[in-house]
Design a protein that fits this description.
Blueprint lengths: L5 E5 L3 E7 L2 E7 L1 H11 L3 E5 L6 H12 L3 E2 L11 E6 L5 E6 L15 E5 L8 H15 L1 E5 L4 H4 L2 H13 L3 E5 H7 L5 H11 L3 E5 L5 E5 L6 E3 L12 H15 L6 H9 L2 H19 L9 H10 L5
Parallel strand pairs: 1-4, 1-8, 2-6, 4-5, 8-9, 9-10, 10-11
Antiparallel strand pairs: 2-3, 6-7, 11-12, 12-13
């Protein structure tokens, strides 16, 4: 019997201090923590490699991950203090961020015991951790599959010119790339989203997806000529915190289930995949993201939550 694929998520876990309607509360957060917890809640063996302190905030991160069934790579709590993201949520539920940031990776970070690597956000571009993330991506691409979400944070990533080459280098080693239309517009202000997606696909990935908030998502496959448009789940908006991370978690989970991620063989299958092969994965990503935006904060749906939606909408299975 083949063991289930093991997933390694590499990137930030931090405290989100969210200001809304004149008050502020702190929540555990960070793009890679959200994705790791989302994948684990969907039933997959998931480990997070990150960087936080042995302070009260770091202890809250460790507790939340343990409660979410996410393993933590030893050495992750080696930072001088835990990063804080200050998020301001506007009247439409959209969040903007500023950071008190430390970023590195523990020396124990390696990929040889994992089958799928996911990374993204500022982890790939902020040093000294960024170069270590790139090394892990290159290692993981030799034997398993790799996914990436640039998840742009201008306040810590500098200018597009400073990070574009690193982002494109990582894309060239990836199988699955997901970005928001806002990410692409920041990186390439003079180019259309569709044009950027085509150029990214030509760099090497088998699947490129652009999320577009209330307008759903665009998807491209190496094995298909035309672009697919995916409608969003129709829900009442709580806020958009963690929406893209939840989409990523649902997508990775379903691709693992379908044998389209998690091994060298899965990489080859994904490169040859047609829309019929990946539609259920795109639907799961849409459902998990929709469930997240229907709540306040970075809610991570489990399989029962997803099933309650798909049971009522069998076209989403």
């Amino acid at each position: 019997m083949t063991a289930s694929p093991r997933v390694l998520c590499v990137g930030e876990a931090l405290m989100d201090r969210i200001e809304r309607d004149g008050s502020a509360k702190e929540y555990v957060g960070g793009s890679l923590l959200n994705v790791a917890r989302g994948i684990a809640q969907l039933g997959h063996d998931t480990t997070l490699a990150s960087w936080w302190g042995e302070d009260e905030r770091g202890q809250q991160l460790a507790k939340a991950l343990a409660e979410g069934d996410v393993h933590v790579l030893p050495g992750t709590s080696g930072a001088d203090h835990t990063t804080v993201a200050y998020a301001h949520v506007d009247s439409e539920g959209r969040a903007t961020y500023e950071f008190d940031l430390l970023w590195d990776l523990p020396e124990q970070a390696r990929t040889d015991t994992y089958d799928h690597l996911h990374t993204g956000s500022f982890a790939a571009t902020v040093e000294p951790g960024g170069k270590k993330v790139l090394r892990l991506v290159k290692e993981a691409a030799l034997t398993g599959t790799v996914s990436y979400d640039p998840n742009i944070r201008p306040s810590v990533m500098g200018s597009p010119e400073q990070v574009r080459s690193r982002i494109e280098e990582i894309i060239s080693f990836c199988d699955i790339v997901k970005a928001s239309d806002e990410d692409i517009s920041w990186l390439y202000p003079d180019r259309a989203v569709e044009d950027v997606m085509r150029s990214w696909l030509a760099m090497g990935p088998a699947m490129v997806i652009t999320t577009r908030g209330p307008w759903g998502a665009y998807a491209r496959l190496a094995g298909e000529r035309d672009m697919l448009v995916i409608d969003p789940l129709n829900v009442e908006l709580g806020d958009t915190v963690g929406a893209g991370d939840s989409f990523m978690a649902g997508l990775i989970s379903a691709l693992l289930d379908a044998g389209l991620a998690g091994s060298g063989q899965a990489r080859r299958k994904l490169r040859e995949a047609k829309w019929a092969d990946v539609l259920s994965a795109l639907h799961r990503a849409t459902v998990t993201s929709g469930l997240t935006v229907s709540k306040l904060g970075a809610f991570s749906p489990n399989r029962a939550d997803v099933a309650r939606v798909t049971d009522g909408h069998p076209e989403l299975k």
